[in-house]
Amino acid sequence: MRYINTLHEGETIRTIYLCKGKRSAETRNGKPYDNLILQDKTGTLDGKVWDPNSNGIADYDEKDFVEVFGEVINYNGNLQLNIRQLRVAGKGEYNPADYMPTSEKSVDGMYEELMHYGAQVKNPYLQQVIQYYFVKDEAFIRRFKSHSAAKTVHHGFAGGLLEHTLSVVKMCEYMVGAYPILNKDLLYTAAMCHDIGKTQELSSFPDNDYTDDGQLLGHIVIGVEMLDDAIREIPDFPKKLSSELKHCIIAHHGELEYGSPKKPALAEAVALNFADCTDAKMQTLTEIFKDKNTTDWLGYNRLFESNLRKTSI
């Protein structure tokens, strides 16, 4: 197969991709066409079927693996595939692992490192929260290791949730060393648990889309509910500590308009918000600049509210 990150303008290709998205539209002249998002493990590619009623275009839908034949063009600085032929591929024609974007880091290695931080939590009640999910719940561990951290924007790949969580914990490690006012046990536990709700907010690959609970509740509410499930199983868990831990999760997006029901009121919640935001933004920049061998301006980015480009050296 031809991986998306190896394509070049002017090529004519025939290969199989996952049809991650499909939307029907009309040209200004009223002619129907299909917008596709094609995916493999190296990224996504916009596709256009300009004549969906052509004999060369078979019936297909989102989440189908499709063999496409067409020309790679450059449209507004991005590659696009103009598709002349399309058919749904049979199961024996592709390996699903080729179509799931995956962390470039060792999942088992990252999990082992995360648990190294978890073992540093000395408070017996908080340690039991960590044990409840990250040691004893095998189904949760499998989901956590393989899940993405987002549908889009940052860490939207298998293993992304683990990679993001570990990065947040590492930033919290620095802050604990720099600012003695921070409670290490509370901050480490909150950092490890801050996005556990994403294991239920998003479906697994290849869908990687919002579940019903993801749409209706969101990962912050789901995460607090999951914490409460653990806390109820731990005898004599201190009420104040429970509220402080839940507050860190509730407030980790920092602002009401970013989805947090409460703004940070504890030093640990402030630190967690900064660590979460920093890693999300730096990973977003990493993904924006990836495979873009240019120092030209890339255009306005909504998340950063700025025109972006790579450093010149």
Could you explain how this protein is built, in words?
With 313 residues, this protein is of the alpha+beta class. The chain folds into 2 domains: 4-98, Nucleic acid-binding proteins (OB fold (Dihydrolipoamide Acetyltransferase, E2P), Beta Barrel); 100-289. Helix content is 38%, strand content 18%. The strands form 2 sheets. It has a 5-stranded mixed β-barrel.
Largest sheet: 5 strands, mixed, barrel
Number of strands: 7
Report the oligomer. single chain
The average pLDDT is 91
Shape: elongated
> What is the distance, rounded to the nearest whole angstrom, between the alpha carbons of the first and last residues?
34 Å
Give the fraction of residues assigned to helices.
Answer: 25-40%
Which helices and strands, and how do they pair?
Elements: E1 12-26, E2 32-40, E3 43-49, E4 65-75, E5 78-88, H1 107-118, H2 124-134, H3 138-146, H4 160-178, H5 184-193, H6 198-201, H7 212-216, H8 219-232, H9 239-250, H10 267-289, E6 300-301, E7 306-307
Parallel strand pairs: 3-5
Antiparallel strand pairs: 1-2, 1-4, 2-3, 4-5, 6-7
Helix pairs in contact: 1-4, 2-5, 4-5, 4-10, 5-9, 5-10, 8-9
